Fold:
Amino acid sequence: MRTSTPLAAAVLAVSLTACGGGSDTSASPAGSPGSPPPAEESSAAPTTSAPLPTGPYAKDGFNYPACKDGACEIYVRTGTRVPMKTSVAGFGTLLVSKATASGVDFAGKSPDAAGSIGQQPGYRARIGKLDVVTVTVNQRHPAGNGVETLAILRLSPA
Structure:
């Protein structure tokens, strides 16, 4: 009987090694060459406290005073007022009256400044001495208790 216990232990050890050996060599860290990362890790999205706008990002974000010199790329929404230097743009404030999936409506706050209605991505408008390009429309961003449409405008002196 004494010989059977060590023999049984040896057989058990060999069988565990044989059965578990294949899975030990295939289970490697996610960063090992030749092995894909586990499905849970590759499909998991990083979590943030507040969702960011999707798609392209505006270089100057919501920093509207960065536009005073007439060169910026900003997020706008309905009601946005962008301060401008009159000497650069020909008016003191760029007003966004509407930002929807159908386009962006904006104008310069001046009797002489025309505007643009429903400007879609990729289009350029000249308002006073300022060129305004709509980069993208309909980005979603948290706003209070809901979401709203954002657009990215790129401003440059004409």
